[in-house]
Amino acid sequence: MRVLQVASEAAPFAKTGGLADVVGALPGALSRLGCHVTVVIPAHREAFSSRRLPIESTGWEFDVAVGTRKQKAKIFQSHLPGRDGSPDVTVYLVGNDAYFDRPTLYGGAEDYPDNSERFIFFSRAVLELANRFEEPCDIIHSHDWQTGLVPAYQKVLASQWPRLARARTLHTIHNMAYQGVFWHWDMLLTGIDWRYFNWQQMEYFGQLNLLKTGVVFADTVSTVSPTYAREIQSAPGGCSLEGVLSARGDSLAGIVNGIDTEAWNPGNDPHLPRPYGEADVVEGKYAAKAALASRLGHVAPDPRPLIAFVGRLAEQKGIGLVFDLLERLAGSGRARFLVLGTGDPRAEDGLRRLAASYPGTIDLVIGFDEGLAHLVQGAADMLVIPSLYEPCGLTQLYALRYGTIPIVRATGGLVDTVVDATPEALADGTASGFRFSAVDGGAFAHAVERALELHADTDRWQSLVRRVMQEDWSWDSSARKYLRLYQHALASPPTPVRVP
Ligand code: ADP
Ligand code: GLC
Predict the structure, then answer these.
(1) 17 lines ligand 1 (CB under 6 A)
(2) CA-CA-CA-CA dihedral for 277, 282, 283, 287, to nearest 10
(3) Ligand 2 binding site (Cβ under 6 Å of any ligand atom)
(4) What are the pLDDT digits (tens) for 362-394?
(5) With CB atoms 3.0 to 4.6 Å apart as the test, which of 96, 246, 317, 385 could cross-link to 408 if both were Cys?
């Protein structure tokens, strides 16, 4: 089966969050199951400046229609290395300097004003490119709002790319809060007829909605956990698209993300001072703590448990609850805290002020630092993820692998991946972390207190740590589920395009 993965970011080329981790790892897992996978992403400046994998020019260039203009696409090529005998996965990067040679992927505090045009260009370029492949693809798997037009183009403008006409499309939603909503005149840039601009297809309160477009036109739709798949079919989880999503309920699958067990492996992680596994997790974490302490300029590692937060400083991540927790517990002297994140400038400023009031207890690193994220997972005892909503979440899965106990709010994928350490779950060996439900600082602090209590019981804590490290969150089983979705889509007729 030939599968095309289309997304706006993929690790290690360009990353702002979990989407990149997924698109960087799922292709390899599918390839190990025997699929022939190709990935297409934009040629962001970051992909060249990070220089983690060599990128070459293919010499291919073609014009892409964006409204009445033609824009040049220059195609670059790289690969994701194959593993366990499976071949490398080819990655094409669609270049256009005006659109993608920029300092960040989507903008800063404000989005780039031409984001719709950039991703209209990219989505259309993907079809132009795939139509030129020697072997046509069977499945076109697109992700998030940036590529929501891909399933629409494949159906609505099928005659332009005849070699893709038989393919089936799957659109995966990673976050309902980012829908790619733009003013209606951007319809002109898409080249799609205005009759599709109606409330059942591309229109959304008078505007163009690219995520809705993907959901409506794709043959199959999925999201990144079963709980989130249920949550988004009603308000508030659906972010006003709950009607559209529940109408597609029969073809809306929820598949939990896996993790790249090679990139995230405490037994072989170049960002850790020494590798560790279950047997020597105590020593490994101590070494990581010492390395972190010296990196942060401390005189010595702190003997208190280290509670960390790693993530985007965005409302979604429960940043308000993080403030609340720090205010409640930083003065207690019972733990040390570290926040690694970047995002909302007001949250960054607030955290700077808070950290300054508790020197020696709260460490703050504002920025996006992949290596430091690994070191923190190694060094921390607990990772807090108090998200207001969480489609899947990957940091809790990295935490489990690194023997760092997650403390999570019971929402979305966090429900599907973390089992609360009740006395029963601890006794039967299913516990993997601590959960709380209410969006409330008291409930969050209570979950952290429970974790600190267990931490004080060294034997029981260590046995929990060793057990969670054994959990298998590799991509294998999730990739099999995607493969079944693909097979099912191929065996079913395409979703018809209604013209209202
Ligand atoms: P989301 O995609 O919603 O941001 P996920 O948990 O799925 O959340 O994925 C977040 C990814 O981004 C993880 O790989 C995490 O380690 C990484 N990450 C988030 N913030 C930072 C940061 N400030 N520095 C380094 N890595 C970060
Ligand atoms: C989104 C979600 C996150 C998920 C990631 C990858 O960014 O916020 O929960 O893990 O996508 O699917």
Answers:
(1) yes
(2) 100
(3) 17-19, 22, 174-175, 224, 257, 390-394, 413
(4) 999 999 999 999 999 999 999 999 999 999 999
(5) 385
